[in-house]
Amino acid sequence: MTPRSIPVLLARALNALFFLTTAAYCALCYVPFAYEQFIRPELVAWPSQFVSWYHYGFWLTLFITALTIVAPIRKGQFQWSMIAYLAVCLLVGVWLLNNPVMSTVDTSARSLVLALVALSFPITLAVIDHGGTLPGCSIRVDESRLMGSCLATAGVVWAVFATSAVYRVVAFEGTRPPVSLLAVGLCASLLVHVLLFCGLFLGVALSLRLIRLVTSALVAEYWALIACGAVAAWFVLRHIVFPAVTFTGFAATLLAAVFATCLALCWSALVCGLRCGNPAGDSMDIILSPIRIRSGWMAGLTIVLLTLPAMGLSRALAGIDWDFLLQKLSVLLFWGIAFAATRRLLASARASYPTVGKDPAWRSAWPSSSIAVPLVIVAVYWGVERGAPSALAAASIPYADYTFDRYASIDPSFQLVRDATRTSGGATAAFYAFLRRNSTIAHVEVPPVNVDFVHPLTPPSEPPPHVFLFVVDSLRRDYLSPYNDAVSFTPGIAAFANDSFVFDRAFTRYGATGLAVPSIWTGGMTLHMQYISPYAPMNTLAKLLDAGGYQRLMSLDGITARLSRAGTAVRQLDRSVRVKDFRFCNTLSELQDMLRSGDTRSGPIFAYSLPQDIHMSNAFTQPVPDASRYQGFFPPVASEVQRIDECFGRFVDFLKLEGLFDDSIVILTSDHGDSLGEEGRVGHAYTLFPEVIRIPLIVHLPPALARGRSADLSEVAFSSDITPTLYSLLGYEPADLGPLYGAPLFGDGARGRDRRRDPFLIASSYGPVYGMLRHNGRFLYIADAVGGRDYAYDLSDGHLGARVQITPDLRRLNWDLIRGQVSAIATEYHFVGR
Amino acid sequence: MPDSCELSAPTSIASLDACRKRHPLDVEILLDLGLAYQNAGDWVRAEAVYTAAVDIDPRDAEARHRLGDILIRRGDRAGAVREAERTVSLRPGNRLALDLLDRARAGGTP
């Protein structure tokens, strides 16, 4: 193989990027969660554009790749393998013209096969590019230099992110952690970074020693390093990237392996193209050659400059990230650059000052010392970790995990190491495995079951009232003045609340939209699956609307559309608007026009919308001109709340003006809350923290319906109570379907329901994270099988509650309750597990 | 094994007191203990227990209702009215709460 020009290498990179993107798209489609939440609703634009232009992209990639192949052929460097590769690509390209396969991928196994096929293209090209030759190297990998680089990188990475953490505490953090916490976090961070890079060094060094036992060929060292890179890439994909989109199991393991192989081979081909025939340096130098840092001072400057993006990393990515995935990948990139820069810096130092890094005499006498030192470090850490809990307990230092969580929230590198190295065994592993078996159920047939609050359901005896149900995505209760005296920017909702019932302890059953919306329509919890099809037999709200002869005026988001019976008559709001772009003001304006037009007056109206104004994908990126107005709040969200408050207030005035208000049930709620920086948490991907599960629930009743009815606003309530409440308000007596289902919020004026001792299951929509809400909503236990840890909160005081220590008894009790209710759902849906 | 206090509380004062010691912030146990004292005619202890429950969870309508009821029995009219008004605001439309308020204002007996 000869060195390749930069344009050829860019062409190879384009080829790899195109097919890796193809495989990534197919993998996303294969995962029901990603397909239903990201792809179908077109949450981001690129997938649909990628599909629309796919065949052009394929031909362009093929054309550019062909150009790089034809030139060598003209020079007489003829390769049958390359011709065969081109021929197959041509056939596929022609086939694609008549078979737009990318527009048909879905959650079926075919998508997985297509992903594997897509990866075969760059893998084949990389194998051909290697052409049986490899970059020559004349130097054995220097273990002591590698160890020095690893330890120095640990120090550099720690210092970069520690500086960033201190800066964040000083500059941004609203609730500053105490100095002692910061100090403990910094020490822990240094320890785990040293441990991590020692572990990485040991993995590489042992692989090299193993390969040296088999062969003395230096090229084998090169391949051992490439294999180590592939294993690292597999680990990142399998344990960091894929779990972020709930892609787990054998299919994830397989695809991660092929993906990692592809990445390693393509990188190797790139290295070959750059360094073929240039034997300078050992195999590690050759593999790092694409990250070209020319001099020692440039390496030093790179390290210093790394601190700047590290400072703003979390904030910059918050609006577009999912479960911190981009943040974690960015940290990995930091590590790679820091390693290359540190290695270069040490090499320069060694060249300038020969005594720097020179092996001491004892190392010559004991050649295994470069392995032994990190082994001792790992062993000491292991011992410390084993003994630490009892030592901390003996020293009466509580909440060690809490301390590290707080620090991790301001040090993404520390957080990544903690998450990646978290393991659980014994009963904990078995319990988490149970949760995983019963969550994100996919690729199995689960027939629907009939859920009925009233059976048979006949039309109501009295003319039913209008119903306006507004579920504002991600709206937090503590951003509304009826729930928080510190809020001054929601006068419209405050006025509405004065005429309404404000349920103080309202919660969602699911910590994200995917299953929170179905739980509202069902009036209870469902199997952890997106989605049982057809869903109509479980859709008790739709059954009520049919019985009541309601006209539906609805924004049809992807989820609500999936829940409805095919052919249901709907006058659609926000038609031709992407779900992500549903705006409350526009929807209400359109709804007003429909109501004004008069042709909706023939029967009761049911209006529904799921506005996206507050959702992190929208609000986080909105500029806020006068952020100081929202002291104590997250300004981008607070300003959006203020905007929708004005529109909602005007809409309520409109209803009053039109004489509709006193004939209408108006419900303002949200599907879930959101983390807006509390203790460093952002978003609601797989979490059930208090700010995510607490929701506003404000219900206005027509005076005629309110008479003789009472509500206990201090009793625990759920958004899944809305549907049985509507049944009750329309004159039915909804059946008590048990703790997994809702119950009417209003009683007959005397004693209401008594739920204060009932344990209520809650769950994340997208992952095996479950919670148990008890003591009238005052106590929350969270079992997080995604993050591999449990939490407990006392919600008695404040909006965010206070974290409490988990005792073995507390854990056992809540695990039993969670296991019992998760099993009850599985039993109800005849789901026997995977 | 976890004790049974949290899920299905005992009924005797001694057992409930033991539960309270193990779970001092458990409002449900306090409500059960208060009721046990009420049934035993020990209004002083019942008031203390309900007051403790209200201190833990000021927005608990049941605790306030029971405390208001006890305060009427104990002749603390102002306190009873305060608790009854709070109960009515937490349980709008509830006849029992309105009745409590009426009785508190009238200074009547339960």
Please describe the structure with a list of short key phrases separated by commas or semicolons.
heterodimer, A: 834 residues, alpha/beta, seven-stranded mixed sheet, five-stranded antiparallel sheet, 29 helices, 53% helix, B: 110 residues, 6 helices, 0% strand, globular
Describe the fold and architecture.
The complex is a heterodimer of chains A (834) and B (110). Chain A is an alpha/beta fold and 834 residues long. Chain A has 29 helices and 16 strands. In chain A, helix 4 runs antiparallel to helix 5 (80-98). Chain A is globular, with a radius of gyration of 30 Å. The two termini of chain A are 49 Å apart. The mean pLDDT of chain A is 87. With 110 residues, chain B is mainly α. Helix content of chain B is 70%, strand content 0%. In chain B, helix 4 runs parallel beside helix 6 and helix 5 (77-90) runs antiparallel to helix 6 (95-106). Chain B starts with 12 loop residues before the first helix and ends with a helix. The mean pLDDT of chain B is 89. Chain A binds chain B through residues 501, 504-505, 706, 708-715, 746-747, 749-752, 756-757, 759, 774-776, 778, 794, 796, 809-810, 812-813, and chain B through 1-3, 6-8, 25-28, 56-57, 59-62, 89-97.
